[in-house]
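I have been asked to look over a protein record a colleague put together. Thanks in advance; the entry in question is below.
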Amino acid sequence: MSLDCLTPAGQRAIEAQRAILDRFLSVYPDVECLLTATDQPAAVDAVIGRRGVVVAVAEVKARNATLACLREQFGSYLITASKIEEARKVGMGLSASTLLIVGLLDAIVWWKLAAPDGSWLVPFRCEETVTQATVNGGSACRLNAYLSLEPMKVALVWNLEEGGP
């Protein structure tokens, strides 16, 4: 059985994550980023530092939706609950904040999910639902977190007709 990250779809997802991080970092030039391994699963996608000190860990996602769709149709952001819990634990272990960075079709948005001490900063509710299992498809019934959009920050927005930054 092949790891999802090693399949063509997995590699495209990793490339998308890297492009999202590059765009995100262009807005915050005082930070630097180290990526985690892409040939095996990792608890976080990136470690973010400032002046040589770790300040955050990040989970990075790419979604086929616009900012308006996220706000008006969904009203929250769905992510696997265990994914943000794992990231929070890594952040706590490094005394770093936990971020979720999401690339949409027309924007990059982000949440500061947890403080360095592990306390949650974003309200969310959990519910067991059926969602796509992996980037390679399939379905899975699992505990998902629905994050409030209220604390979401918009890092970058572009016009779809213009093709983005």
